[in-house]
Amino acid sequence: MSQQRPDRTNTRKPAARPDASMSLLTNVMDHSLDDGYAEAAARRSETGERGLPRTLRAKLGLAAGLVLAALVVTVGAAQARVSAPTLAKEREQLIHRIQKGTAEADTQQQRVDTTRDAVDRMQREALQKHGGDKAELLALLAGSTQVTGPGVKLVVDDAKGAESGAGGPRESSDFSDTGRVRDRDLQRVVNGLWQSGAEAMAVNGQRLTSLSAIRAAGDAILVDNKPLVPPYTVLAVGDGQRLSTAFQDSADGQYLHVLQENYGVRAKISAESQVTLPPAPSLTVRTAKPQAGAAKTDGADTGKGTS
If you average pLDDT over residues 240-251, what whole number do you get? Predict the structure, then answer.
């Protein structure tokens, strides 16, 4: 009788995996993070389908944004209403201070004008009292009164295209080689008119006296410390045609002609039937001694000339 071999297929246990003790690491390696993302996306999709529609959620978000914006505007308007009275009050106070300061300045200016008129009146009275028949001449030489009569008009201007900042400052003893009228050029013109017979003179409305000075400060020419800008209009009272001819024939007139011909300085002189010169803005008298019915003033009536 044959013997049957025992069946050993079920008796042998399957071999264990070498990485069985590292189940967590094996799970991470077998299942990548993409699976987690896929599950999360699936849950969000399922929630969206089961929850509120997306269009409704968008409308609710927009409504919430509008409510928030309206709240911000309302709060801002409330704050503006609260601060408006304070700003209005400060503005009114500032306007009041400005108006008060302007009124005080106007009052001070009126006092200055009144005082100046009083000083001018006393000066004229003193000239009339001590000058006798020469009072008008003294007033004319001192520049204390307005003068009207025949004369000449001389306009002197920089050359065309002359730059205001070129050539350094205006004070110079040389020719105006940059085409700009310098202080010494204007001095020679004025002194030439005095020597040619001018009785009174003004430059750009600034009355000249025997104490007047023409100087330079940077790019500006000063007449009695008042800055002038070109063109320089010189008005001189005198015998118009004779004064014009005498000046053009003088050394200073020839000097001006050289500036015209060689350096482009522009100049035009004409005889006028009537010119009007304003009084000097201020009259400074250093010493005054009446002698034999006439006033002798050091620097105010002892000769003409501008330095």
Answer: 92
